[in-house]
Amino acid sequence: MRIFNVKTIIVGGSATGMGVAARLKRNDPNATIVVYQEKSYVSLGACGLPYFVAGNFSDPNNLIARSITAFEENGIIIVPNTQVFKIDFENKLVYFDNKTDSYDNLVIATGATPYIPPLVGVELKNVYTLTTLEDGIELKKAMQNPNIKNVAVIGAGFIGLEMSETLSELNKNVHLFELEERISPNAFDPEFSQFIKENLEKNKINVHLSTKVTEIKGTDQVQAVVLADNSLIEVDAVVLALGFRPNTEILRNTKLALAENGAIIIDETGHTNIDHVYSGGDAATSSNYITGELIYSPLATVASKIARVIADNIANKPAKFVGSIRSAVVRVFDLGYARTGLGEFEAKKQGYQIRTVLIKDKDQTNYVNGQTDLYLKIIMDIKSRQILGAQMSGAVKAMQRINTLAALIWSKVPVDEALEQIDLIYAPPFARTTDILHIALAKLNK
Amino acid sequence: MRIFNVKTIIVGGSATGMGVAARLKRNDPNATIVVYQEKSYVSLGACGLPYFVAGNFSDPNNLIARSITAFEENGIIIVPNTQVFKIDFENKLVYFDNKTDSYDNLVIATGATPYIPPLVGVELKNVYTLTTLEDGIELKKAMQNPNIKNVAVIGAGFIGLEMSETLSELNKNVHLFELEERISPNAFDPEFSQFIKENLEKNKINVHLSTKVTEIKGTDQVQAVVLADNSLIEVDAVVLALGFRPNTEILRNTKLALAENGAIIIDETGHTNIDHVYSGGDAATSSNYITGELIYSPLATVASKIARVIADNIANKPAKFVGSIRSAVVRVFDLGYARTGLGEFEAKKQGYQIRTVLIKDKDQTNYVNGQTDLYLKIIMDIKSRQILGAQMSGAVKAMQRINTLAALIWSKVPVDEALEQIDLIYAPPFARTTDILHIALAKLNK
């Protein structure tokens, strides 16, 4: 299908924006596509920043999935270093510098920025966040300084965990602060929060739970963080990892519908409440595949899928995003922690009557080198007998198992005798004859 | 549920037999269970033998999953070193030594033995098979002899592959002979046979395809193998890996129904055609989950599942084995090869109209150490759009992905827009945002 003389403006050149651009151009080689991008680069794989800081590689350009030149060779117009500061939905105009540009279709893919808490001292030198290439380069350079010995990481979500590992590998003494009483409470159930805590502590991270940082002390440079009980912990730098806020400031007080946190509300086609205006990725809501609920889940995997959906719909190829089950994984030192679907608390809140199992087993036979411990939790809806969620921890090599559970959640099959007998691969270096998944399913099916 | 005064005799003390024994005792602590076992041990994990020979561990008892003593402490009677040589189904008697024993229920779990071809020279010293603990100990000892430099492995199925690797790690010069024109033709499609061949050759294994060994030459010791074209290849030892034959000689010319290859025909409850007589594992048939066909698939994973089914049925807890999709994996040096479901040829033979994709991609991001190549083939039924089979190769750490496909086959979900969007885990050390599975599903769904 081809669209003639249709111009699509994309605001934002990260995963969602460039994903839409690339697929739309494939869908319709004649489409006019203009991307306005704040940065000098597009397609940053921001998930790789902690690994860049940790020194896994030295050229930050490795994080650029595809260059501006490559997109331009493909006929996509990119306007870098340019911030769109206003959108006139009525007249279909975007405003930047002292100019405007007009669109037939608009894709708002402005992403999200790290939440900066309103703390005294948050503006001090050596207070970092990690979202842009510049952030990564600056933090990496700063951490080369041997005088920076003690670093506070505020927030124990996935990025806080990755940063704790990264800084520890750079020989920093890390203090990890979390306001909640456990690690990554939005991703994991308490058992797994506890496993992660133990792993962090084994690796000499100072974990401070139920701890509120109320001030960052220092004159010019950071000297300490102040806690709610007025105690001080001396640190030389602070990394903020308190989650993300959608970049939608310019859309406040417009007719565009926003969720409570500022995310642009989209339907399953990626469409907003305004005709010809689409959004997706970290700037927008998404939906929960299981419950249908509108959620905010700024994950790269969601962004890449919604980008396809938007591009197809703009090209008149009807497409729907069916939702996310928030499948995610994080590596903390030598172990992985993965989750998919609903957590126990979430499932109960949704009104499900649930049965859960938590199994400890091994990933492979004992007689081939490399056997490691696995933990697997599964949450089942008693009524439908469908799996609602699962969480796992173990060696990196064992983590793909969670995708088997994601597939079962996705397929909505009941836990029954047939599922208990699911035929999984076995050979001594890979698994045991009866996998941890079999043990868990058999226990659920009792 | 309890059964009173019911005696179950189990012939054979490997995976199936001991699996039935253990679960039956759990089902009914008062059950009388007697196991007749040819060997001095039970519960051998024979899959581990190549790793024992390779020197991954030195104590062969590591391969014994559970000792006779442990079973006996549990109230299971084990009669080791005893061969049942006749069964009288009419009078419900088993014959051994010069005695008989009578049963209410009988489980024939005699397993299988390696096929020994009728070759001149097959009785020579230094001609080995690898199924029993004694085989393993003998072969390992023999291979310590530095005068054994060149070894022939006959048969390029999974055990032939594992043995080629094992012998190569013991610094032997290995010649691998396969009658068919490609590696593991019953497990893999030609593309993957070729990948394995390239890997073997990269690792200095001499691969001889479409090659029939017609004689083993030697006086006392092996000196060479003779090929169909009368050429000679000098070897100092031979390992036979030509597949398995069910151990059912004593059942020929009885009323027990056997398949063409001698496997005991069982139904989905593990029951044979004779009342109160069950069988399973390597001695018996099983069924294909997709096609319902009776198959012979001597895999440990099938044995352990059918054992549960038999034990439950004997204990009056109705249970059914729903079939196998022949999920299997083999490691060859540093790479894994996995398969599940129907192969392309098999699917066509079954009359399916199929679409296939073969994708090459990477297992994780490029900027974290350890990125490796993956190949994934999926076979889809065009009519139902269900996945019929999949094959994969890649690093050991990437292989669990095949279980995601096994789960999709098991769930019988169609390949559609929703499945294309299956939510899989992503983080830089584990995957790419768009996994090879997404790429394959999108291509299938075009």
UniProtKB/TrEMBL annotation, chains A, B:
<protein>
    <submittedName>
        <fullName>NADH oxidase</fullName>
    </submittedName>
</protein>
<dbReference type="InterPro" id="IPR050260">
    <property type="entry name" value="FAD-bd_OxRdtase"/>
</dbReference>
<dbReference type="InterPro" id="IPR036188">
    <property type="entry name" value="FAD/NAD-bd_sf"/>
</dbReference>
<keyword id="KW-0274">FAD</keyword>
<dbReference type="InterPro" id="IPR023753">
    <property type="entry name" value="FAD/NAD-binding_dom"/>
</dbReference>
<dbReference type="Pfam" id="PF07992">
    <property type="entry name" value="Pyr_redox_2"/>
</dbReference>
<dbReference type="InterPro" id="IPR016156">
    <property type="entry name" value="FAD/NAD-linked_Rdtase_dimer_sf"/>
</dbReference>
<keyword id="KW-0560">Oxidoreductase</keyword>
<comment type="similarity">
    <text>Belongs to the class-III pyridine nucleotide-disulfide oxidoreductase family.</text>
</comment>
<keyword id="KW-0676">Redox-active center</keyword>
<dbReference type="InterPro" id="IPR004099">
    <property type="entry name" value="Pyr_nucl-diS_OxRdtase_dimer"/>
</dbReference>
<keyword id="KW-0285">Flavoprotein</keyword>
<dbReference type="Pfam" id="PF02852">
    <property type="entry name" value="Pyr_redox_dim"/>
</dbReference>
<dbReference type="GO" id="GO:0016491">
    <property type="term" value="F:oxidoreductase activity"/>
</dbReference>
<feature type="domain" description="FAD/NAD(P)-binding">
    <location>
        <begin position="7"/>
        <end position="284"/>
    </location>
</feature>
<feature type="domain" description="Pyridine nucleotide-disulphide oxidoreductase dimerisation">
    <location>
        <begin position="330"/>
        <end position="431"/>
    </location>
</feature>
